[in-house]
Amino acid sequence: DIQMTQSPSSLSASVGDRVTITCRASQSISTYLNWYQQRPGKAPKLLIYVASSLQSGVPSRFSGSGSGTDFTLTISSLQPEDFAAYYCQQSYSTPFTFGQGTRLEIK
Amino acid sequence: EVQLLESGGGLVQPGGSLRLSCAASGFIFSNYAMSWVRQAPGKGLEWVSSVSDSGRSTYYVDSVKGRFTISRDNSKNTLYLQMNSLRAEDTAVYYCAKTPGLVRGARPDVWGQGTTVTVSS
After folding, report:
1. Given A12, A37, B5, B8, which residue has the most CB atoms within 10 angstroms?
2. Contacts of A93 in chain B (CB under 8 A)
3. A38 vs B105: CB contact, 8 Å cut-off?
């Protein structure tokens, strides 16, 4: 199975900050990488697919990059509604493993 | 409006069975693969299973192989997860998700609200 490792596990930031979350795969997954946001008590929401494609309706302050084994999710200017958990997931092969998550908290 | 509504969760004893359902609306159900993803209390997300648009191809995480069966009824726009031989570690919120792009490039883009399964004596 492909292991996905996110860093950091938690992050404190302020409204207006630029933040970056990293995801590393245990083997090359080309660009088959999704990013999700999950607010407490809610279902996950797809933000980015195939590493850098913005899902319809997602604000442009979210962006993704990377290929092979190293990927990043960047939020250019944090808004209050962005404080949530974020997960990466590889869609290269089953089982479609997730990273352990990054909790983004208000500083 | 695209919508997924899960049902069938509840409290079950270890070794018991449960069938989850996911009713879909607002899109052509038979055109899309579907998936189940679960989240144990206070934990991260775990992909459980996916099924192709026709239902002919199915995929499972190793921990549920031989115990869970994913299926769909395209005439009823409904996805199912039959769960047998349930264990305490299966306790989780189970989400169904519309999954374009199965297999390589799968991108679950619409999710239900989840249904809670608790396995306990």
Report:
1. A37
2. 103-104
3. no
Instruction: Express each pLDDT in B9-31 by its tens digit.
Output: 999 999 999 999 999 999 999 99
Taking CB atoms and an 8 Å limit, are A50 and B62 in contact across chains? no
CA dist B33 and B57 (Å) reads: 9
Q: Are B119 and B27 in contact (CB under 8 A)?
A: no
Contact B113 A99 (CB under 8 A): no
Measured distance CA(B71)–CA(B67) in Å, rounded = 13
The HSE-up count of residue B68 (CA atoms within 13 Å, CB side) is 25
pLDDT tens string B78-115? 999 999 999 999 999 999 999 998 878 899 999 999 99
Cβ A89–B45 below 8 Å, yes or no?
yes
Around Cβ B15, how many Cβ atoms within 10 Å?
Answer: 11
